[in-house]
Amino acid sequence: MASKKLIRKGEGSSLISIIGDEDTVTGFLLTGIGERNTKGETNFLIVDSTTPQKTIEETFKRFLKTPNISVILINQHIAEKELRPFINEYDGIIPTILEIPSKDVPYDPKKDTCLLYT
């Protein structure tokens, strides 16, 4: 009888991470994308007016370095205000960085790096 290979979380699987406002992150967490590793690090960050820019930058850089994160979703207004230099500098394919709209701030395709570079 052939043995079955068990796939454990984190082995051969990919994660989606998100940096966004509370409504956006909560919506995605309700779909089941939330993850906490053994170090207590999560694959999401809720950004509000009190979130230090350094925290946003460090979280973004950690997501870029995490090997099982394949997609980083960022609210466009947060990308524009807090992370634009880092996003413009990034030239990798995976993880893919996607800017998404938020409930309160309209999406502007003229600022979306995915559209600008294609």
Explain this structure to me?
Mean pLDDT is 86; it is low at 1-10. The chain is 34% helix and 18% strand. It has a 4-stranded parallel sheet, with helices on both faces. By secondary structure, it is an alpha/beta fold. The protein is globular, with a radius of gyration of 15 Å. The protein starts with 14 loop residues before the first strand and ends with a helix.
Low-confidence stretches: 1-10
Tally of strands: 4
Note the overall shape.
globular
Compute the CA-based radius of gyration.
15 Å
Instruction: Specify the number of helices.
Output: 4
Q: Strand content of the residues, in percent?
A: 15-25%
Widest sheet: strand ordering: 2-1-3-4
Mean pLDDT: 86
Order of helices and strands: EHEHEHEH
By secondary-structure content and strand pairing, the structural class works out as alpha/beta
> What is the CA-CA span between the terminal residues?
49 Å
Largest sheet: 4 strands, parallel
- The portion of residues assigned to helices is 25-40%
Give the secondary structure arrangement, pairings included.
Elements: E1 15-20, H1 22-30, E2 44-46, H2 53-65, E3 69-75, H3 76-89, E4 96-100, H4 113-116
Parallel strand pairs: 1-2, 1-3, 3-4
Summarize the structure.
With 118 residues, this protein is α/β, with parallel strands linked by helices.
